[in-house]
């Protein structure tokens, strides 16, 4: 029986999908808190969190919107809270960092390069919208760059890493992003243990194919050696197959309604917990166990939930 524990991350709401796309996408603080806690109870050890404007569900960088659910999640479960620093490609870096700097969480995401980040094709699937902002928000991604320069990355490492004791989920959307992690490891600005999130299937990044996952892992092995662990986030219908492949290759897995709205072909997931439950069953069928939050804190050298500011 394999002894390795698998880290399940659940990305609860994100900033890609809009309310029209699924009635199950959490947008209010109550919905985000309830779905996050349920995902933790289903087996997610890390909760990756964005905020939304509770009035119309648009992505929000307002710290008040985060603080409306963060304390509730902390009080209700022991999962590691991981706050986005990516937010949305249409936010400035200072906007994206406002909530993490206030909350000083155990973990944050950190995007490792600037890129085109195209969500505009999703607009073609719908003719009627729940809110007027949705089609324009998607269309804007056609002429926007998701800005994560070297200076931006260094700023996040300094202000959140050194300043708040936060550690990172390094999001790598393409091969060059892994090279950037390796550069900052050599510079001493990133310190092991490193937790990489391979992101496959975003338009503008590497595509969601098994060959690409193998390529990303081989690159990380060559550049980072034994200084890292990895997880896989695959968009849409690729979520479960490539997440399963990650486990087989020695990695971890991220699921959640940020990354995919479905639980099977043509079937909307009714909750984040449903996706967590499915990947947990797959992990256990393969002979592994889901890691508990305490095991993740030890494995990733996190500061502990008692040292956050919420």
Order the strands across the largest sheet as they lie in space.
2-3-6-7-10-11-12-13
CATH superfamily: Aldolase class I
Order of helices and strands: EEHEEEHHEHEEHEHEHEHEHEEEHEH
Gross morphology is: globular
Question: Radius of gyration over alpha carbons?
Answer: 18 Å
Quick summary:
The protein is an alpha/beta fold and 310 residues long. 38% of the residues lie in helices and 19% in strands.
Pick out its properties.
3-keto-5-aminohexanoate cleavage protein, ThiamineP_synth_sf, single chain, alpha/beta, TIM Barrel, two-stranded parallel ribbon, 11 helices
Please, could you describe this protein's structure?
There is one protein chain. The chain has one domain: Aldolase class I (TIM Barrel, Alpha-Beta Barrel), CATH 3.20.20.70. Helix content is 38%, strand content 19%. It has eleven helices and 16 strands. The strands form five sheets. Strands 2-3-6-7-10-11-12-13 form an eight-stranded parallel barrel, surrounded by eight helices.
Write the layout of secondary structure elements.
Blueprint: E1 5-6, E2 8-11, H1 29-42, E3 46-49, E4 51-52, E5 59-60, H2 63-67, H3 70-76, E6 80-83, H4 93-103, E7 107-111, E8 115-116, H5 133-139, E9 145-146, H6 150-164, E10 167-172, H7 175-187, E11 194-200, H8 210-224, E12 228-234, H9 239-248, E13 252-255, E14 262-264, E15 267-268, H10 272-285, E16 289-290, H11 293-299
Parallel strand pairs: 1-16, 2-3, 2-13, 3-6, 6-7, 7-10, 10-11, 11-12, 12-13
Antiparallel strand pairs: 4-5, 8-9, 14-15
Helix pairs in contact: 1-3, 1-10, 4-6, 7-8
